[in-house]
Fold each of these.
Amino acid sequence: MANNTAEHPPGNSVAEGNHDGDFGVTVMDLRELMELRSAEGVSKIQDTHGDVQGLCRRLKTSAIEGLSGNPVDLEKRHTSFGKNFIPPKKAKTFLALVWEALQDVTLIILEIAAIISLGLSFYHPPGGDSEACGQVAGGVEDEGEAQAGWIEGAAILFSVAIVVLVTAFNDWSKEKQFRGLQSRIEQEQKFTVIRKGQVIQIPVSEIVVGDIAQIKYGDLLPADGILIQGNDLKIDESSLTGESDQVRKSMEKDPMLLSGTHVMEGSGRMVVSAVGLNSQTGIIFTLLCAGDNEEVKKVKKSKKQGPSENRNKAKTQDGIALEIQPLKSEEATESEEKEEVKPVKKVNVTKKEKSVLQGKLTKLAVQIGKAGLIMSALTVIILILYFVIDTFAVQGRSWTSECTPIYIQYFVKFFIIGVTVLVVAVPEGLPLAVTISLAYSVKKMMKDNNLVRHLDACETMGNATAICSDKTGTLTMNRMTVVQAYVNDTHFKTVPEPDAIKPETLEVMVNSISINSAYTTKILPPEKEGGLPRHVGNKTECALLGMVLQLKRDYQPIRDEVPEEKLYKVYTFNSSRKSMSTVLKNADGGFRMYSKGASEIVLRKCSRILDTQGHPRIFKPKDRDEMVRKVIEPMACDGLRTICVAYRDFPAEAGEPNWENENEILNELTCIVVVGIEDPVRPEVPDAIVKCQRAGITVRMVTGDNINTARAIAIKCGILLPGEDFLCMEGKEFNQQIRNDQGEVEQERLDKVWPKLRVLARSSPTDKHTLVKGIIDSTVLETRQVVAVTGDGTNDGPALKKADVGFAMGIAGTDVAKEASDIILTDDNFSSIVKAVMWGRNVYDSISKFLQFQLTVNVVAVIVAFTGACITQDSPLKAVQMLWVNLIMDTLASLALATEPPCESLLLRKPYGRNKPLISRTMMKNILGHAVYQLTIIFTLLFAGETIFNIDSGRNTPLHAPPSEHYTIVFNVFVMMQLFNEINARKIHGERNVFEGIYKNPIFCSVVLGTFILQIVIVQFGGKPFSCTALTIDQWLWCVFIGVGELLWGQLISAIPTHHLKFLMEAGHGTTKEEIKDDEMAEGADEIDHAEMELRRGQILWFRGLNRIQTQIKVVNAFRSSLHVGLESPESRSSIHSFMAHPEFVPQSEEEARIPTIEETGDEIDPLPSASSSGAGGGGEPPSAFPHSCESSI
């Protein structure tokens, strides 16, 4: 099979610079061409253009030189064929966000209460103030005061408006920040094209029709194109077709390449034929956007937003589309691995249904909400009963029609008090604190080289108990150099001089290295004088090319002599082959194949080796064992990577071999040289790993490298310490230990291996995924494990996706790895992960600090309102005052406590893990301790305040009485105590010094000062709306003094040892072992919401119904109507979730049940196999976990 381009030269090369006249082909022609697949496409190209070269001529481009890059020409192409850009979805307007914020149930109740209160305050019945209505109208001094009844209702509405605006503004700024992040990811997205014969990288948005793009393993194609030269190219088209099998591309059979699909193997060049909205992905996107139903747009757009810029949004905004792809393509082509691919697909169901913290917070908020509801209901009932009994039974009055409005006004007042108790009880500040804390951290993490793609990943990282790290590039510098070589039966400890090697050997070695490597790999001169040469492309190949240069030879002339078009066949490197081979056709009709790869693998296929004279001699298995012992193992023990370079000649008389039979071809090789490549450990890594170990995080190295090399590097990094009985094993042995006789992974067997495993060498992507999944699912240790994984290759996709947090390499990482990850390390450095841990723990602690503060306020306010209402028939803290406490304490405190910067001491404690409660015993001690102090003070003031301060009592005042000094002091003291307790809340682990590092947080200082100033304004000038009256300077000093008492009391509480207080409950637990076991039983079914189950069933039926429909447009219309119904269900709006309400923050499980379009199911396929094999179009579940979607619905 010839993979080279057609022989005749292109008509229109760059040199001619022909920019006048139109192109010989229109946008519509190209669109129609790209809609065809495989053989149809080939015949269409032959009928219309002769061949691909003919198409290149019509597009005025050269297959070798590419475009000229002339701005006039590029502009013309933009106008003729469009730009490679798909406009993003419009951001929600501020008003839309305000409307969303108004949906909060407690706010709605408050609004209704306030409106009723307002209405009734304006209604004055004739004779209503007569004595007949009891004490109702008593104490109203003048008309003016009676007219002021509306103020309370108006003030409540005003407070609600502020709460809504703050929430909406927060959401708006969050979305804006998110889009900023998005555009940053997009700007960094570059692709390799050839212009003026030079290989350059340009931003994806600048690609035009006619560009010659170089594609390689791991790329995500940014535009549609037609293959003009390919080596062993396999593409995963599941994002467009839903078929998980990799599609082999070749010029003869299937040259059509589509945007949004992943290159899983091989390399090649394509001529770009459609960009932006004219590409296949763009067309689908346009069709979907035609629908006016926003919901339809949201769900389906995410699915198809594949190409260029928007493909990042696809994952990040709706959290599903491209997340699903790499999983299906894992190694689907290799049959022996098929079995292992199945469990992978379950990932999507359980993955990120809620982050650890969200799960705990939701539970906690629900518990608090229930308690608040009961308290508020009790308050209202007691108030009404007390009033009714007192008025009608004790005073013996009868209900008369003229008194009705006044009585109703009383009931409304009671209702408002009840609602206020509820409002204060429910910590709405919680979602706000989480959002602020996460958003603040994400912004700061950018500076620490962590680009966070999913907000919750940042907090999950704080809980991490294990990190499975790659070796190359993460722990090591990924700057490879050859330091030892074994050639001509001699082991050189440094790179030999050219004259130390026989000329024939040198010749074949230099040719082999120069030709049998990606031509995109180059060594360029340093950017700065005296700097190191720049390595471009594959780093291992750069090391080999570097050796060629050290041997005083040059690789470029050899490549110029044998351009890529002349390569007869290329077997590109992949994770199962672990080698790369290139075949050339000789002049006599024979063939020569050059190979290189992992030494123990290539040496097994060698039957000869070049001896001291440079002649091939027989190389027997015993010679090989000796070589492994004497050469390869010593190199590996020095931490070197060993690569073997070999060749094989196929004589012309034997005829052309069958290139498809790889086992036959890659055999009978002749070994030329074995080199030892050094990849030095990054200088900062050992220190970072010590920090991780001190912080209770186990670091494991998972690498494809030789076990001796891996062990040597692990010892250098500090992953393996002398005198410890940790395991180092190879993938093969690992699989033998964890699989049963049927070859299935057993969790019990895995549980015996992973706790001691530190290095897994020669591992396949499947091994990495199995290990990560096994550790996450394991319940063998006290706490469940939270696992972070680093990866850079396409093959790391499944493990990155399965992990709780996936880190992709920003520099060396492939597009597929970045798509599957949660955080991108922009400097590829392990020490950045330690910073992510620090930030993650800081988020967790910030939220705990806020909770400790918030719950103290809540407990005190609820008890005061409840007992006050029961004893004095009126809440000492009025509705508006409560709202002020709620709004200011919530919003501002969340701002103050959520922005505490992290410190190194965070890394000195063990991780919390999955099921550690949010509120520890120490925090519970603080909450209850401070509540006792505050309640004592407030009740003392409430019932004895008038005598202490020598003022009038404020208890039992009539309906519209003016505010009293007494109650103003109670309110003021309450706020002062909260203010000083906010300083106490800065420490949650029982530390003594609560002021430590306070000056490092200007936000905290300004919030405390700002609240204090606002409180002065409210008390002195708030008047009737805030039920306050101005206080004297003495009274103010007393209030502040009582507040400062909080700090002293805090010292007293921290002196009490927590371990004596066994009776204290903890709250906000994560998932327990028992719950997990049930989940496992249900194969993850319980983790999907029931509504989703219904949608799943619907999916299968849709497959059946729509299976035979051919045209996309009909499909889109059909789906538009179906989705209209399926997705009208209102979004969950509980307080704690409100910050998840944007599409970009929807956890994956909520969006999981995507309705697949026809392309995902394939046109003419039987519905059920498609549903199960591609996991319902990427929804993803193994057939075993399918009962709820197939059998039950059919």
Note: The CA atoms of residues 1187 and 1193 lie 9 Å apart.
Amino acid sequence: MTSLFKPSPGRRRGSDLESGKSENADSDSDTFYIPSKNASIERLQQWRKAALVLNASRRFRYTLDLKKEQETREMRQKIRSHAHALLAANRFMDMGREQGVEKPIASATPAGDFGIGPEQLVLMSKDHNVASLQQYGGALGLSDLLKINPEKGISGEDDDLLKRKTTYGSNTYPRKKGKGFLRFLWDACHDLTLIILMVAAVASLALGIKTEGIKEGWYDGGSIAFAVILVIVVTAVSDYKQSLQFQNLNDEKRNIHMEVLRGGRRVEVSIYDLVVGDVIPLNIGNQVPADGVLISGHSLALDESSMTGESKIVNKDANKDPFLMSGCKVADGNGVMLVTGVGVNTEWGLLMASISEDNGEETPLQVRLNGVATFIGSIGLAVAACVLVILLVRYFTGHTRDIGGGPQFIKGKTKIGHVVDDVIKVITVAVTIVVVAVPEGLPLAVTLTLAYSMRKMMADKALVRRLSACETMGSATTICSDKTGTLTLNQMTLVESYAGGKKTDTEQLPATITSLCVEGIAQNTTGSIYVPEGGGELELSGSPTEKAILGWGLKLGMNFETVRSQSSILHAFPFNSEKKRGGVAVKTADGEVHVHWKGASEIVLASCTSYIDLDGNVAPMTEDKALYFRNGIEEMAGRTLRCVALAFRTYEAERVPKGEEELSKWAMPDDDLILLAIVGIKDPCRPGVKDSVQLCQNAGVKVRMVTGDNVQTARAIALECGILTSDAEASEPTLIEGKSFRAMTDSERDKICDKISVMGRSSPNDKLLLVQSLRRRGHVVAVTGDGTNDAPALHEADIGLAMGIAGTEVAKESSDIIILDDNFASVVKVVRWGRSVYANIQKFIQFQLTVNVAALVINVVAAISSGDVPLTAVQLLWVNLIMDTLGALALATEPPTDHLMGRPPVGRKEPLITNIMWRNLLIQAIYQVSVLLVLNFRGVSLLGLEHEVPEHAIRVKNTLIFNAFVLCQAFNEFNARKPDEKNIFKGIIKNRLFMGIIVITLVLQVIIVEFLGKFASTTKLNWQQWLICVGIGVISWPLALVGKFIPVSKTPLSTKLSGLKCWGKKKSSGEGSL
């Protein structure tokens, strides 16, 4: 079976499906293989059809519901069609207005304490009715009706918030309730084998009562029915708890936090706490959280594809097209919006309320385990069928003996009721073998360990958005990390500056430089400064870089509000990560136009033709002076400082476009600039980041730094973090600039990408090119990102890691995992958890296969040789419960250990059963089978039961076999915890769940043996017999230890089998002959 045996190296080959090229023959022929991202519907349907499934409703619960997915797409299409119709109607009405046909508009109707009702707001927003908005006085008039100050927002007091929620509703939408416990109970009942067992139990019950009376005759059928009900209840409880965990995690994923203006200050609130009247600053990458109108904006453009289905970017204008739809993303520019509709009063709210969210998603490991389950289950079915045929043949030919030694069936003499009862018992045993043999819980163990891991990862500051990312992270061979905020603290402090032509202090700057710097800092920013009314410390908001520069402005004597009021913004060019700068054109009180630029120091410096000297005069930028500034930049960058330059130029007012449309398209001049200052901003490395990087390197995961900062700054930080070990390494291609990498051909990039450790002055597209090259080279790539332009790289990477604090909503939506604290140490923890998922599944497979092999062999050999089986249906159901549900809980929830980070990355298509696992499980299975078969055939004499009543002796022997078998599994669970470590007890005390399950298993086993004899077909054992059982179980510990000294081949067993297969083919065709 390919899923079980097929090997793969730790890194993918160039022709792998996920490397961007066509699927190779292996992937194509392997039914139970899907890529970790963007699997096609055909691929998903293919493995579902091939899987051997006993309970489809349970097995496919956590996979993508293909039918629901289709319904959701259709519903989205309907909503989008509605949005298109509204836009078309709006255009038609605009044309009517242009031709003088005006539709009468109703005046605002007060509602509660406010001047306009919710119906009018909703109607205006949905129809995008500009005329209605203008009648209400535009955004400012609407602000008055909603009783807010557009400069300061709502007051934010509890009473005001309550009134707004009461009048206009809250920003939530009704969600369809998740499945209740009874539904999980019902799903668990759909297992085909359990249904057959229940039918057999009812038939056995009826026959037993008829032949033996109600007092004695109900035990056989009743015990099977009770065991089946117990299995169903335990399964349902386990599944229900998993469902609750996923539900909580999904609630966390949807809970977006954003900044709003309340009481004049920027505060962070949950998207669910937004109310009508809230004023929200919007920047690139933000999601529009509610319906609203634009108060003001600069080059604001939205991606409305989530609502309209079209990837067209729509430019927004405060006068012509001011309406913003909830759920859209800010693609460019910035602005300030006024919320006019929330919750189900928005198109997005209606969409989310109308579709049932399907959180199902199959992961590659889950699909592979379905392949393993199908392979093992097929063998189990064949074995069960053989047992059934053998037992029936032996029975009807008179070879099956009763307790007295005589034949159970004598043709023409045995009553029909006894025959039916005996046949039902045979069928029950065969069906129970199928229950044990088909590992229905194996694929679900992935879901269990993922649910556990996701919950624990939340505590480790990682929010998983896609299940498969958890396991893929265990295969990561390289991490392309941002610098700012991930490797560093993102706590910026301006510590150095060059102005007036030299390195200088704030106090030494002439008034000309100070006034122009202050003007540029106050106007060319997306941050703000809040001044508390009663006095107190000023509050700076914005990105860390913005806050550092605003803080420097305050040292220069800047009064933020006063400076902003002294000039008006004509046009703005928001900071762009491609051009590495942002600018603003302002008109001063005396009518002059100043164009201010701020950005990467060497890029802005290259556009400067002059600078202002210490006397306040404009001086030409000579080659010597430019060299002086460049040396200053390199010197600061060499000390890990981020260098930012401020420059400006004047512009003729008459050349500035007059109309709004022309102004929005105006390319602000960025040449002939006058340098004002170059500042150095310190952003210290995170404590412990060097150890985290070293831990990754030791684990075979190469850490690469990709940053937009100066190459020298990148080099200095990389040396401090341990990404570069010495200055000798700091040369191409180990240290490379983005533009150099960008200029290469694909083949050239592929040749050097393995050697790259640091990329400086990179654009988001450079990061994407690096990811693509690495993937083509066979790497499993994890990428961190926070900006909107990082989205393509996050999407392209095998694992996209978005930053929770600095990250935009666009970046988060393109990611697979969100790092909540932006810390590289948390990324390393995700790697540990990824490896833990894979390791835990392997532990469970080893444990389950040992039970499978032992139970099957014992029953088959006993059936063939004696016509009877030592393990009854009820006993096998108890073993199945230990193996499936309790075993998964115990082994699939092991926390990660440091030992995992001492291994190389896990190949995503490596065989699930390694040579070490084969060795361990075969040793245990052979031992268990040998001992229990000896007991089965020689147990009466070995246990000294020859003089006992034969019926009692056989029952004691069979009870001892059952008890020893269960205790072997309990002790072997300890071995399964550490497949490749000699100390199986390491960390055992910390894992309370494991210990609890072992204790529960042992206590229940004692109860079954000592007190439930009639139900479980057991009899009480004396203390010597208990000691024998415990001894048989305990021997598995030293046996496992000795086994670990047996060397195993590094070549996977599957590779050898494949080689033999190929050799056989060649020989049969004559190619293999000498």
Note: Residues 302 and 331 are 5 Å apart (CA to CA).
Amino acid sequence: MFGGSQPDARVASDGEPGSFVEGSILRIAMNNFLTYELAVVNPGANLNMIVGANGTGKSSIVCAICLGLAGKTALLGRGDKIGLFVKRGCSRGSIEIELYKNGRNVVINREISTENLSQWTLNGKSCSQKVVEEEVKALQIQVSNLCQFLPQEKVGEFAKMSRIELLEATEKSVGPPEMYTYHCELKNFRGRERELENTVNEKAAFLERAKQKNESNKLDMNRYYEKKRHLDMIELLEKKKPWVEFEAVRKEHESVKTEREEVKKRLSSLKQTHGPMLKKIQLINNQLEPIEAQIKTKTIDIKEAARKCKARRDQLDRKQKEIDDIKQALNLKHTEKVDEEKRIANTKTIIDDLQKELATVGEQPDVAPRIDAISVELRGHQEERARLDGEKSDIRREKDNMIAESKMFTRRLNDMNNMMKAKEDKLKFRHKDTFTAIQWLRQNRQLFSGNVHEPMLLVLNVKDPRFAKYVETHIAFNDLRGFLFEKREDMEAFMKEVRDKLKLRVNSILAPAVSCANKQPSRPIESLKRFGFYSYLREMFDAPTDVVSYLCYQYNVHDVPVGTAQTKAMINKVIEEPYLKLIYTAEERYVVKKSIYSNQVSTNNSQLRPSKFLTISVDAEEKGQVEQQIQNCERKIKDLDERLAGLRENFSTLEGRDNELRNEKKGLVEQKGKKRQLEQKIATKLGSLQQIEKNRVDLKKLEEDTKTKIGAVNAQKVAMMVEVMEQIKLRASLSMLKVHLTLQTLGLTAEKTHLEGSCKDRQAELRTLEDAFTRLDTKKNQLHERCKGLMRSAQTICNMGAAGTVPAELKVAFSTLPDTMEELDALLNEECSRAEGFTGIRENVVEEYNRREVEIQHLEKELGDQSEALNTYRMNMSEAKERWLNPLRTLICQINERFGEYFRSMQCVGEVDLHSEKEEEYDKYGIRIRVKFHNSTELHELTAHHQSGGERSVSTMLYLMALQELNRCPFRVVDEINQGMDPINERRVFNIVVRTACKETTSQYFFITPKLLQDLQYAEEMTVLCIHNGPQMLSPGDWDEKAFLRRIARRKKRTKPE
């Protein structure tokens, strides 16, 4: 179809339009798309085998189908941006797909650019992606469904699908259009049914509680009404009580008012007869006032003279005391003189005694040499102790340094352990089964004979956090969380315990038999620095030798270079280097493929994502060194403690010897110094005696000085006595004047007393009447105010206005009650006692009872309505369940029948069933695939971990073939699923694919593979699309199919025998 260096896609046989299912692909045209510059593919109506070597462009056709039918880039597992699918060196590309449809085919065109923009046309008219998605959905095409569209990068994910996901994908792929809709409705119905059930149960429980509550409240309500009757009586008594009290006070007020008027009349009559006598008494009072003023003045002058006289007498007393002090001082000197004579006599006696003792002390032997020897030995011991103290101080300093160093290393080790704990926490959050398996391994490591390494997420230590994204991108996550084993028997034993018994989903890896840890790169990194490469991946991390060996063997980390932004800028030159298969730039990953036919280079690049796990790193070698340092520090500290103990023992021995020497020296010194001590004591006493005699008191001189001082003080006393006599004379004259004035006052006072005595009786009677009038007037006012207050209180209690009268009904009620306060109080106390007997009754019990009765009636109606609605809803659900579950079980039986038949043809066992823990939990329904490839094993569910890669591929392919015959989707795509199968299984699967996909009742099928086994059986309905590329290929415009067929015919004639 096309030549030059472009790829070639040829149609081996064309299906008739009538044999195509609606939605089948008739044509795929690609322009500047991945490896293609221009290519057109015309698939057949049945099985389409797309065959070609790696790198020729097979998967590019799968990408074109997905992206041309509005699929997401994430479905392909390649680049995450649409611009990455434009052919390198071009700015724009396009995909055009023609789909079969009764009446008129559907042509979808998508133009893409390196700016990640897309333009859509549908049947030649511009449209949005939404319109294309709706058209594709109407044709029952589901490129996001792994049961219909399984690209190469997603083959492994099929086995990872959960039962629920597999059921939904199967329903969408081969079930009737309404089956998945019914399933979704049932899940929603079940949720609504739970809500209705909960609502009905809650309302029924609430209704029962309300009834029980009201039944228990009936007695409270009766007691409430009984109490209310007593309270009403109390209220009525309280209302009458102020009226009775008001009437009593009003009567008292009238009585007091009458008595007050009578006292007022008597008081007025007495005041008229008492006036003249009071005026005469007032005249005498006026005469007495000036005389009493003069007496007061004279009294003040007399007091002043007495004060001055007393002051002079006080001065005389002080002078007398001064004379007494002088005499006392002289007497003290006399006493000191006597004591001085006694001390002199005693000192002389002591000196005589000491001289006698000195005379009795004989000659003693010379002890000085022994004292000197002891002193020398003590100095030696002191020097030794100083040396020991210095050595102890040095050891303590060294010990303190060791302790500080040990603490520093301990903190460093704790930091490393905390970092390891953070890595374990991340792993526990991301994959709990792996974390649980790690805990089991740490407890049971003795069960294994070889090395067993924990997951690489924990043992890999990236040297720089910036390198983490390269390592984490390069190594598959399943390997990062996998346990690596040195011996196969250890791995099998581990998987049997952890996976089969504990049911944990874990991965295991076997290290290469021959270590690859020391493999060298194909070229030294120095030769790549011109492209911006600075390191190989292996140099970016530390790990155990077995782990490094596996990574070199499986991922070639020793030969994958990492570059910078310079590498990205030079990428066109870099990918031309023949030895670079996989490289990293600063932010991207590049996979370089080279065609074995044309030597044309194609690349696939993807953006690096930030690291999630390996940014936290702990250097295992450094951690071991830190632990060794801590042990060394502890050992040195122990040695230093032992040395300190020895030094303390030596120090204690020296202390004991020093005490013995000091005691001996003390005795010798005392023996040597006794005579000298006596001589010193005698000399001291003689000095004291001389000092006492030198300071003797002169009594004669002191007596003369005393007489002189006393004479001076007596002269001052004489002058003071003269002043005292003058003040006494002045005081006597003033007293005579005061006596004269006092006599005048006595005459007037006697007359006043006579007058006052005459009117005393009348004054007492007047005061009594005034007091009585005041008291009665005050009481009248108080009673008046009290009447008004009691009236207001009574009116307020009876809800009357200021000028209102007692209501008629109250008057009738009051008439039945007592009219005295004593009787009212007695009856009130009785009613209060009865009311207080009703305790524990809430005020709102009646209101609650009535309100709850209304609620109960409302709840009974609601409960009946909702119970009826729930029963109706369950009937509808039962009908919906029959519409969904019966066809689904039939569908699963058909799939199981075909799946089991395919497996039996391969001498294996396979089953497909509908699995659900609870029949009514529709969101838990799922498809369970169980397979057995060996007679010695049991049926196991198909998972991403239990079966090998080839077994998963066979199971996936046969399940898809079981779906193929049920044929609801227009086409299926499977990309390179036969990779990893052994030749026997691959041949069996191929025969099943051909036999199934070439039936007239099946839909279109695309099977992509890079190679086929020899001597396979083919069918006429197959279309084989051979993908070629190379420098001698024709361009699509130069390809002439008819000329090609004529040449083939001529060649056959020439080779035909005569």
Note: The chain has a mean pLDDT of 77.
